[in-house]
Amino acid sequence: MDSGSLVNSTTTFGGRYTHTAQALHWVTAALMFVILPIAWVMVNMPTTAQFRGLLFTLHKSVGLTIVVLVAVRIAWRAKHPVPPLEVGLARWEKAAAKASHWMLYVVLVGMPISGYLLDAAGGYSISYFGLFSVPLLPKSAALSSVATWVHVAVGQWLVYTFIFLHVAASVWHISVRRDGVLDRMLPTQEPRRG
What we know:
- By secondary structure, the protein is an all-alpha fold.
- It has one domain (8-185): Fumarate Reductase Cytochrome B subunit.
- The protein contains 5 helices and 2 strands; from the N terminus they run H-H-H-H-E-E-H.
- It has helices at residues 9-12, 19-44, 52-79, 91-120, 141-177, and strands at 127-128, 132-133.
- Helix 3 crosses helix 4.
- The longest helix has 37 residues, at 141-177.
- It starts with 8 loop residues before the first helix and ends in a 17-residue tail after the last helix.
């Protein structure tokens, strides 16, 4: 398909997400690309490394920020439905897009909650960017152990999987299909003059 045959995403896909939904999406995406490298570095540092504690605080703080943003995003979405994918996608593609979006929400809520539980029930302090301490739970080795398994053994791989699928689908729509799906999550572009 050549560039002259690009479809108009505004009419083909029923419009764009609201500016608020767009902002929440891109801020959450940016934070995901911050939190993952922090996690990789902090768990591979020696326990005596100078900045290890700072990285753990940043990781926890960004995770708590993400879960709040996702909660706001879900609440916003309940009041402002997603613009429909009216034309151009098969029924299975629409179902796959919807399922993968909701699984991404589940993972983006589940990871911070499991991270909170592994620390809060494990007796580890949780500081939000050094501004205040997040309340802990009664110490429970069993709860902390289960939360650690969810967060480390399962959750991180689900995060990688669904972020990869989301990015891969975006690249597919941009470079292969060239159907304007990504435009739904971008601000309206003013036409160039002259």
